[in-house]
Design goal:
The protein has 301 residues and is of the alpha/beta class. It has two domains: 137 residues, Nucleotidyltransferase, domain 5 (2-Layer Sandwich); 88 residues, no CATH class. Helix content is 54%, strand content 11%. It has twelve helices and five strands. It has a five-stranded mixed sheet. A hairpin with a 2-residue loop joins strand 1 and strand 2. Helix 1 packs across helix 12 and helix 6 packs antiparallel against helix 7. The longest helix has 19 residues. The protein is elongated, with a radius of gyration of 23 Å. The chain starts with 14 loop residues before the first helix and ends with a helix.
Length: 301
């Protein structure tokens, strides 16, 4: 039997079609069934779902080098932020992580939300500041930690709504002052920032020391008291450390939409491959590159 010719071992589809399929599946959350219909309607291509999977898998393979470069940049960063969201992979609960710095946005699919994911990602690198919510697995990875104040603000807003105790309202006003200061942090002199910080710390001490008969208030005071050294770290790094983790949440939002539309991934390779694609695209966006241009450039390389 004659061997298969080398020319027959490749794919008849070019980089643009691979980029279009990757864009529609990853960034427009099309199911395989809808992607089949689009390919038939727009390009006159009749592809099986298995054929589409092979096409996407080939395309995703082109993003591994870009992902490695992004991870390397993350491991040099002085400020890193992180977050994760649940996703179904191969019928089991898993997680889609995201790590951000000034130079990279790294997406990662993992079967757990434990701290071991962060340890493996950072490979011993300890940035000057780590920003995240209060979840334990995302703590203690930087020299200092900035707590996401948006998460605390939501807890405080709930307490204001359901409790008649005055302490939650005072905490809400205090957080409002912090958010206002954060918007002007790069416009103020170091001495002014120090003075405002001392004033904020005095006010917070007064609020946390107020006795209360409300269980919700006491729990809130204890929670904020435990995070006290993580609330105003951004003032020591004007313009470099945010007060919220909204950047990570925005990066995760498309993955959340994908999860709701498709109910997750049937295979780990699909989840990992999509994370690689999002890593390269989101990192390129930091420099102003468009999504499809990045896909086409990477796949055609």
């Amino acid at each position: 039997m004659a061997p298969v010719p080398q020319a027959a071992r490749g794919t008849p589809f070019g980089p643009r079609l691979h980029a279009v399929a990757t864009y529609l599946k990853t960034f427009q959350a099309l199911s395989y069934e809808r992607l089949q219909a689009v390919m038939a309607d727009l390009f006159g291509l009749t592809l099986s779902q298995g054929g589409l999977m092979n096409l996407l898998r080939r395309a995703q393979g082109q993003f591994r080098a870009g992902r490695e470069a992004a991870v390397a940049a993350l491991r040099r960063a002085e400020v890193v932020t992180s977050d994760e969201t649940g996703v179904c992979i191969e019928g089991s609960n898993a997680y889609h992580w995201v790590f951000r710095s000034d130079a990279a946005v790294v997406h990662h699919a993992a079967p757990t939300r434990a701290a071991c994911v962060v340890h493996a990602m950072m490979d011993g690198h300890r940035p000057a500041v780590w920003l995240s919510d209060r979840y334990t697995a995302q703590q203690s990875h930087g020299v200092r930690h900035q707590t996401c104040l948006a998460h605390l603000a939501r807890d405080v807003a709930y307490a204001v709504e359901v409790s008649e105790d005055p302490v939650p309202l005072r905490l809400e006003l205090w957080l409002g002052s912090v958010f206002s200061l954060a918007k002007r942090v790069t416009d103020l002199a170091a001495s002014t920032l120090s003075a405002k910080r001392r004033a904020l710390e005095r006010r917070l001490s007064e609020i946390l020391s107020v006795p209360s008969q409300c269980d919700l208030t006491r729990a809130l005071q204890a929670k904020i008291g435990r995070a006290r050294d993580q609330l105003l770290v951004f003032l020591d790094h004007p313009g470099r450390v945010e007060v919220t983790n909204n950047g990570c949440e925005r990066a995760l939002h498309p993955a959340v939409v994908q999860r709701k539309v498709t109910n997750g991934y049937q295979a780990m390779w699909a989840a990992a491959g999509e994370a690689d694609v999002r890593t390269v695209v989101n990192t390129a966006r930091l420099s102003g590159a468009s999504t499809f241009a990045t896909l086409l450039k990477t796949i055609g390389a």
